[in-house]
Amino acid sequence: MEYLAHILESSEVTWETSLVRFLISFLLGTLIGVEREKHNQPAGLRTHILISIGATMVMLISIYIPQTFPQFQNGDPGRIAAQVVSGIGFLGAGAILKFGANVKGLTTAASIWAMAAIGLAVGAGMYSISLIGVAVVLFALTAMDLFEKRVFKERTLRKIELTVKKKYSNLELTKTVFKKFDVKITSTGFDRNINEATDKVTFLVGVTRHLDVHKLVDSLEELPGTVSVTVEIIP
């Protein structure tokens, strides 16, 4: 135990300290990676492990250079590790995907960035901070996810297109119907052709999973001047 405590407390980069830090980095990356893998995210178990180990290695190099090469002691060894923060942005951007009007992967991109920071902390021998960081990240990814689902209504996007006669283009009546069915308007588009007798009004809306689409369409069709109603699911 004394030998292990000595390795954990040592500030020098040796093969023993490097091995211990890589193992800790591997375990912490696994914890967060498993959570992301369960949610079928593009950046899952292996990605988070590699990010954590890579960040740890870069930090070890930053510490090792001034220890081994005295001529570089006047430089800034932290510049090497600092590149991880900016470089990880490429992976984060790759995890963010856009499907129609939906954007997915922001949470995974944030977890990638956080995993890199945790890996750097492990490489610097800041084990307590690393463990606290992983605990907070896991809490945010699991407990807060359950909290959001309970407190905030989960909504999916729909595109609703109304074709109405020009003299009946009253958006307030439409908004009243949306409010009745707890439909949240995200954006509104208006298309008018002077050669036609109708206008097209397009709404991008957020709806709850319990919405009765047929009743919503029936209510919209009952509005004065409504010619047709089209509802499209946004993937």
UniProtKB/TrEMBL annotation:
One Pfam family of this protein, by short name?
MgtC
The answer to whether keyword Membrane applies is yes
Q: What is its main location?
A: membrane
Keywords of the record, alphabetical order, are: Cell membrane, Membrane, Transmembrane, Transmembrane helix
UniProt membrane topology term = Multi-pass membrane protein
Give its localization.
Answer: Cell membrane
What GO CC terms are in its UniProt record? plasma membrane
Residue ranges spanning the membrane: these are 18-35, 47-65, 80-99, 106-123
Say if the entry is tagged with keyword Transmembrane helix.
Answer: yes
Q: Where is the MgtC/SapB/SrpB/YhiD N-terminal domain?
A: 23-149
Q: Which InterPro entries match?
A: MgtC/SapB/SrpB/YhiD_fam, MgtC_SapB_SrpB_YhiD_N
Instruction: State the family it belongs to.
Output: Belongs to the MgtC/SapB family.
This chain belongs to the protein called: MgtC/SapB family protein
